């Protein structure tokens, strides 16, 4: 049974035009004028855009002694309600350290729950020969071409520079892309102790102990290591000018570095942590913390300039009760906030409606760019014949106010509470299925989502390999007569 | 009669994939596997890319007391032979100062000669109410959405800052895009006089009198003026880090500024002017002059980073005899070199074959980006159903050495003489016609090219207008009691 | 009769140490422990610093249809009361355009009035052979080694780029230093008209029409011109990051560029112009206008980093009545504010007391650096045997609140009204005379001040000349056989 | 018995003037015209400058399995012959890890040998409570106010980020200044292994394995850590733009960071390592390695701009035989070169004689700035009444060619061999003694040199402490009603 999305204005990362979209099964079959199908989806007065891709979520993640409350079901349904049709979750090795076992675990958790498609980034939280070996299988057998590295969370997820170098080199060999959480974990820990010792135990201490310089430093370091290892690099949750500047410097030298700001950092600022209500402030605790308005402006400009490429959420939702684990010590507050449902509408409202971003740029940073980086474009992230029919009918006439009362997320608050959103999905389609229809009491369809395999060797990685091979240092050939005997 | 381009790998600015392209008449009708048509164009082992767009040429331009030797016929045929299917020439007002008359003149010259499609940028070389009025007609009636401003060539084409501001504001109102030739014309003239007075009369004086700082200054100034006027800006022939840095600074502040390096500046350096053979050096005289290797590296990196968007040629070809007008005075050497035929193959050779650029980036900077900037995408600059069938079968197995003996350009030398090119068009199609076929003795088809109208209000201009309107300074309302009487 | 300043801590730009200062006549005769003299000046619990030098004042200046109200008498007495013992006023050519006549005029006005020493910067407000000729006499006969150039005030003081280049070249020949007021006068005028046309007639329009980008542009342009002309450059009243960044870029390339922030820009911000009381806002109208806190922070950091060297006032005091000339049109409000009396104490309070500056840096930026730049160190600007006894006993225990009621300035308000100052001169000595003693009802001593001649060829100018001569472009010698005949 | 230096031109960091210098015993007693003394030292046609201070030497240092061949005697005598009257050597803890014992060791080695005055920087090569405790004694009892931290030499001297933070915090408490060798030791080791594995065993591998990005990264990291710890920072042997840029960024944010380029990096470039003669290349092996001309230019510009403050040598001289320890493996070549004797004359020749530096800047970067940083100015580093009579009569008419045959250094080569030096000391005085007289067969006077104690709390450190205290984050006070119960 075919569907046709009629009378909308398609917006892609390249352009806008009026056309209908014909869907046959899971795929887009045709784009053009006056198309017909078995079922008509009305897009009059609306845009037709690629389904959003959120490349940074932590659903049901075991972390800081608890587990993120958002489930694969609630999370993917919230995503769908917000216009996001794919997310990439972070898969963390368990106690046995095995990457493959971790993937199996994640599959078990997600498989029967997911309403949208998903993928994983594989975390490298240590280094060993077996990890070196498993990485190949992760890429070639499991279809995961990205590896995450934590430069913070000392004593838990954090790894050292030589381990990063080893893993990055392995990524270069495999055509995979390393990701980093860039904060200097040593210094974060030292500052946490310093502020706690000074009696600063509230959520403001979280912000104080993770200042922008500490993030910028780590970003700069990761970039150097990637350059030395000969691979591209993707820096998650870029929140400040220091990190952004490091990315710009790198790109200006021809390095292939990508930066991902979060919707939270684009729209909320550090004053949230100074709220007199502990719970209010604790709900906003995430790493890196929110920054000042100047940093925000820099991030927005970077999206327009192309020095930053992707807007994500780092969705890691903990309940009020979980947050209270840190009532006496900010360092014990589980790090994370929500945003999966609001990401696209917040970005539209604060970006497109203000003229900071064009509609095309909105599409680029919510789906297309990351699809290219993840090497799944245009299966995902485009409106392309042959690609998956992950399509959103995006309606700028639906305005609503964010409220915990109406959200799909499982948790008991919303960091965007009370903000007005100036667009929403009229329909969200995932591989041809309508999984969300505005005002029609849509329900989660757990288990219909699929895991999407991603091949290695994206175009930028291939070009970089070629350049590095051409420019590798060469041995100086010396006449043995000009080499003395050793001692 | 339909044509099908079979068995190639399509490369667009977004991606690469194997598919056939079906052409009906002037347009692309279908893209897919196993297509059939009346005529088959073999693209086996080759890429299928959008026809190149060179947005910067001066064919038959009256300049510096002579007229550029390259004709619309020879120029557009050279273009076709090199894989370029559209060029944008600079239309200069004549003695009466009328923009519309100048367009008529240019039409007269080009109409019966052009083998490929063309458009014009309209030059603003002075300011008056009639120019203000004519600009509207140029945009709305003549289909030209770009206006060129010369900050150099004092006493001839150069205009002053207040004139630029007035013209840029007019561009903002009309949804048009201003372009600038960025060099400080006052200082260039002073330095010319200084070096001539010191007895430096040879072509090296051309380079000395137009140093990078002089270009960077003007770029920076134009950017400020565009920001104040509220319009985007396109800087032609960006040759140096100073100008590039000004562009990066602007983009980082959210300004909409584009930069266009030339293939010459990407591949040739200032040492050319120090050649002991006067004629050799004089042939390379163009403005800005070639720069050092460091500047070159910066330009390449900018193409990959996205801080520069377009590679052009500034093709303005003067014969050896014409160049000799300046044998006693470098300032009298007609400024300009060729490149229309070599642009795409040089960029491929030095860019894609080295890994500096991906194939997608190659397409972006040779056609797609400029098509978007000029607001004609994807009619031009893409491989898109419904778009013009301006398509090149790009064959990386055809290697050749640049030689004046085999070039299509009318002039008697080639600044790339002797360089090896590692790709060439197997076929060049313009609106469905094969206008160049490798090894088949293709001939010019003058008069078949068309003038392409370009609508105003590209997406970036619209977004910028919205942002500027939202952020315009507001009057402070004061109680009359708080305002004293005047004196 | 000798004087000895006893028991103080001397602070110079280099160091702090406890020592006495013996003064014989106009000069410092000895520095050491346990000195004795005919008269003792008590410096216990105080610092002993070089008298301040304010290199930027406009006393009794004819400007914008009126004349600055501060006289040479009231201005130099206010200076003395604030610890400043020398100022450099801007000498503007009159209608006849003669530089020498202007100096005579300024001498006439100042001679019998000045309580402290003074010098002049000579303004170049046009270009001609007679100006070229007079410049030599100004330097060699009149002892003025600095020339001021206005890039703003179009139609009045402003000059064009080629004129600046000519004047800067002349400065290079004479070993003189050019100064610039850096704002793009064309664009300022255009923006004034734009905002007036939009009905923004109040003082906020002054700020809107002179945005930071407009200043940064001009700074950048002046730097390029100085580099091309081969001379150092001094940029007055640097108010914003854009201009500061241009200075940093230049210095980083080895250019000899200096920047002078004003005490007003370091301590007051743009919100002053949004005050609901017109007169309040109008009093603060000066060019460049005050900026945001971010710009302020940049300026402070530049003083510590050495990218900015001098803190001045641009003291140009107009009365409330004079300000009302612009009640219907902000562009008619006479530009200028006061600060001569408060400069040193404000800088100490906001700089040294906060730890932003060391005491040594305070001395450097209030006197020593400018004395070196003006080539009169250590006659002025130091505590040195043989130098002028321009010395201040600086007492951090004297706190006071700025008030128009107690100020020495002639005008009827104070832009720092109500601020607490955490230091003041206990005694101010000018060439050995006590011209201000705290709490002792000191009175002006008009006519005792002297005009100080300043020789050309400061050390930096000499070094730059040598470097430029070594690195000047060289003619390429070509065999006549390799040069064709002309046409 | 007094001495008078007659008829010279004194040059200090501030100024040049003609005056005589009277020396009584170890100190300067008077500066003025027509002075007389028991002994006359002729300075006609010469400059009189402060004795040079080289703050970076490694005499008789145990390192990489051998011991630097230059002794305290030969090193300090070479220094004197070159115009350097004080050096600061790096004191490394021995196997017991004790700082105080290490100082005793260093004293034992140096005491009877030194011809000039010396001091030590104390190295922190690990972290423990006893080191924490000993640091106080090092500062308060031993007169050492600087602590060196190695970010490279993994497995030997290198320490981790948390250790650096702890040590820097301790420095902040003690008013001491941390120094860093900034290279990422993890990545250096990885790159060494990589290039060795590829068969690159020659000295070029040394350069390849320590690229500029690796140095820039570490500089950036150390700066962040110092900022977090609240202390100033001194970065030794800044060799490249990446590190220099990190310093500029920091200074521009108001951080107190100093950079020290070496005379070798200012004058020699990376091509030295590509020499076909192994021994030639191996002699130049030091860390960081020499860089390209672009980096050199940046360093020179930084000295003039003030973003770099000190020129040192890192004198660590190993013989040809010692260098041959690495004949099969560049990583085994002892790191170090000489320069103590040539530093001042090389800098004068390439700096002052070319106009890159003024004579005053030459003095500043060879002695005055480091004396201020080390908090011993003007006892050392100036020509000041009461200061040590460490004075050089600097004669720009003595030209000589560097040659191992005539050098004072003990080793068997000279990295500046064959270069022409355009100035030399006519006389070098150390605390009033003539320790070198040109052409008079001066001999070493071992044991006359003294260890110079340096007090903590230099002015910049005090100001920074004040600023940090004022700007420390504050606890948010929350009503207990607004803090939930924990879980
Ligand atoms: Zn993270
Ligand atoms: Zn995360
Ligand atoms: Zn041009
Ligand atoms: Zn052109
Ligand atoms: Zn001014
Ligand atoms: Zn002024
Ligand atoms: Zn070192
Ligand atoms: Zn060292």
Automatic annotation (TrEMBL), chains A, B, C, D:
Residues making up the signal peptide according to the UniProt record: none
Cofactor: Zn(2+)
Protein name: Dihydropyrimidinase
Residue ranges annotated for the Amidohydrolase-related domain, each copy included: 47-419
Annotated family: Belongs to the metallo-dependent hydrolases superfamily. Hydantoinase/dihydropyrimidinase family.
Top-rank taxon, per record: Bacteria
Record InterPro entries: Amidohydro-rel, Hydantoinase/dihydroPyrase, Metal-dep_hydrolase_composite, Metal_Hydrolase, Metallo-dep_Hydrolases_sf
Keywords assigned: Hydrolase, Metal-binding
UniProt-listed CDD domains: D-HYD
């Amino acid at each position: 049974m075919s569907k046709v999305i009629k009378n909308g204005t398609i917006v892609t990362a390249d352009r806008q035009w009026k056309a209908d979209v014909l869907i046959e099964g899971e795929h887009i079959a045709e784009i053009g004028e006056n198309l017909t199908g078995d079922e008509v989806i009305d897009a009059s007065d609306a845009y037709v855009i690629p389904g959003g891709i959120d490349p940074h979520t932590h659903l049901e993640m075991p972390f800081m002694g608890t587990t993120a409350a958002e489930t694969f079901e609630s999370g993917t349904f919230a995503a769908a309600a917000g216009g996001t049709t794919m997310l990439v979750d972070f898969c963390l090795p368990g106690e046995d350290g095995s990457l493959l076992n971790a993937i199996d675990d994640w599959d078990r958790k997600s498989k029967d729950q997911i309403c949208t498609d998903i993928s994983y980034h594989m975390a490298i939280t240590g280094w060993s020969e077996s990890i070196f070996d498993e990485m190949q299988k992760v890429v070639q057998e499991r279809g995961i071409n990205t590896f995450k590295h934590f430069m913070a969370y000392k004593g838990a997820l954090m790894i050292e520079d030589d381990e990063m170098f080893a893993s990055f080199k392995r990524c270069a060999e495999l055509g995979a892309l390393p990701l980093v959480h860039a904060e200097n974990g040593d210094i974060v820990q030292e500052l946490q102790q310093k502020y706690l010792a000074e009696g600063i135990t509230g959520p403001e201490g979280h912000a104080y102990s993770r200042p922008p310089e500490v993030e910028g430093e780590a970003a700069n370091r990761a970039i150097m290591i990637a350059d030395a290892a000969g691979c591209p690099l993707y820096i998650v949750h870029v929140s400040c000018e220091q990190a952004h500047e490091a990315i710009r410097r790198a790109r200006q030298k021809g390095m292939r570095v990508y930066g991902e700001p979060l919707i939270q950092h684009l729209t909320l600022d550090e004053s949230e942590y100074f709220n007199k209500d502990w719970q209010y402030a604790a709900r906003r605790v995430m790493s890196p913390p929110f920054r000042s308005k100047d940093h925000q402006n820099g991030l927005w400009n970077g999206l327009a300039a192309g020095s930053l490429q992707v807007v994500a959420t780092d969705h890691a939702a903990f309940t009020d009760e979980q947050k209270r684990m840190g009532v006496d010590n900010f360092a014990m507050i589980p790090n994370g906030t929500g945003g999966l449902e609001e990401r696209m509408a917040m970005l539209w409202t604060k970006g497109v409606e203000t003229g900071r971003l064009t509609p095309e740029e909105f599409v680029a940073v919510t789906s297309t760019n990351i699809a290219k980086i993840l090497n799944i474009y245009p299966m995902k992230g485009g409106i392309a014949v042959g690609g998956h029919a992950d399509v959103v009918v995006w309606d700028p006439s639906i305005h609503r106010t964010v409220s915990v009362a109406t959200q799909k997320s499982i948790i008991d608050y919303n960091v965007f509470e009370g903000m007005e959103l100036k667009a929403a999905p009229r329909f969200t389609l995932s591989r041809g299925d309508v999984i969300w229809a505005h005002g029609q009491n849509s329900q989660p369809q757990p288990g219909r989502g699929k895991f999407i395999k991603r091949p290695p060797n994206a175009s930028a990685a291939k070009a970089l390999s070629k350049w590095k091979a051409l420019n590798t240092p060469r041995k100086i050939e010396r006449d043995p007569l000009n080499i003395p005997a050793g001692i």
